[in-house]
Known about the structure:
By secondary structure, the protein is mainly alpha-helical. The protein folds into 3 domains: 3-75, no CATH class; 82-160, Arc Repressor Mutant, subunit A, CATH 1.10.10; 161-294, Tetracycline Repressor, domain 2, CATH 1.10.357. It is 69% helix and 0% strand. It has 15 helices and no strands. The chain has helices at 12-27, 33-42, 49-58, 64-75, 84-100, 112-132, 139-146, 150-156, 160-183, 189-206, 209-216, 224-246, 256-268, 270-273, 281-294. The longest helix is centred in the middle third of the chain and has 24 residues, at 160-183. The N and C termini lie far apart (59 Å). Mean pLDDT is 81; it is low at 1-12 and 102-112.
Amino acid sequence: MNQVSDKQSPTPSSVDVEAAILDFARTEPELGQAAVAERLRLAGLQISASGVRYIWQKHDLETAVKRLQAIARQSGEGTAALTDNQRQLLERGTLSALLARGDAHSEPGSEEEPLERRRVILNAAAELFSEQGYDRTSIRDIARKVGLLPGSVYHYFPSKDELYLSVHREGFTRVLEKVKAAAATGSDPWERLRLACEVHVTGIVEGSPVDRITGHNLALAGNRDLLEKILPYREAYEEVFRELVNALPVAPDTDRSVLRLFLLGGMNWVYLWYRQGGRTPRDIADTMVEMVRRGVQT
């Protein structure tokens, strides 16, 4: 038994470790037990991943959903105290748990059930499409992930193609709203572009599976028919960046189309090399825009 779970009177070090673990539960509730144990080790506090889990269980915080629920409950603001990504994680986790129990709605046949189940299926599909690709993901895989029979998935989405398209429609609609809202707060053209890019990069590396797949999975889909069907949604999104780039004060001979595609392409591939603990998504987006604006030559 590690020192945290010892039945003897707690030593000062064990009290410090428990307080640190609970602090992480409040400030970074998405972190898993291994990540928390590693953070504590770097801070000079020794505890195993199982020791972290023991403390979480002691305070009924052993899942990310429970930790997020505790933050919302204790804040006095409810889920408004959470970030957008945390609210999405809480929603997905809560609905998945309800589906697993066969209790995704308060009353059988309620109007809310189809919407809730549809949302859970979309999130699971986006995660699998992002991880495995379209061709290697089956309806059976998606059904297994959410605890449903394949026939139940087909009830909401008649084909894998339609499910894939629905994920992208949802993703583009969601990120389009966020990008427009962020850009509208900028005070000048470069600031508006920077804010839009911050939203784009953050969504790709830290957003929900639906957010992430919207950016990078387009480059990986080999199905030309699907790409053609997705194109109108992608073009609506790119139009926002087209307007932002067209408003920039740049040299007269600048090819604004190439500039826009260069910037979007660079951002879409961030997911390949991004690592937590390095530059934040906001830093990456700001650096990209600054390099476009100032150049790199001394």
